[in-house]
Amino acid sequence: MIILVIKKRKGFVKLALETGSQLVPVFSFGEKELFFQPAGYNSFLEKHLVNKIGFYPVAFSGRGYAQNWFGILPRKQPIHVVVGEPIQSSKIDAPSHQDIESLHERYIEEVEKLYNAHKASYGCENIQLEII
User: Fold this and answer.
1) How many CB atoms are located within 10 Å of the residue 96 CB?
2) Which one, 8, 23, 58, 60, has the greatest CB density within 10 A?
């Protein structure tokens, strides 16, 4: 499972509305493989901490500078970035809560579509995307 923590993050949407900027949905395949993450530890965090603190802290291990089995550097794995079509937004000096919610929901839908359209190409056809 890939968990994307974005449902409560709406500041970028408000900024796009205030400036009239486009939002571009982007998804990176392969980021999950950059670090080893112990399953039991992250399951505890997922259930108890993510909703309280607003981000997903992880215990991880990557590779070292001189060896490949332990360290804080990311593993040497390819990352494939897919970019969706820009989402237009109107310039609104003081966007309402409804304006922000509407554009945010559309952005999340487009990210999900992007993931579903490309997941088979990058070996993720059996991996579910969960947006929290």
Assistant:
1) 10
2) 23
Compute the CA torsion angle 49, 71, 37, 6 (nearest 10 deg): 50
For residues 25 and 83, give the distance between their C-alpha atoms in angstroms, rounded to a whole number: 6
| C-alpha–C-alpha distance, residues 30 and 56, integer Å | 18
Residues linked to residue 87 through DSSP beta bridges, in sequence order: 23
Which residue from 122, 131, 91 is spatially nearest to 8, judged by alpha carbons?
131
SS3 content of the chain, % helix, strand, coil (to 5): 40, 15, 45
Q: Which position has the higher pLDDT, 96 or 3?
A: 96
Q: What is the residue whose two structure tokens read 């112990």?
A: 38
130 bridge partner residues: 3
First CA to last CA across the chain, in angstroms?
A: 12
Q: In 10 A of CB 104, how many CB atoms?
A: 21
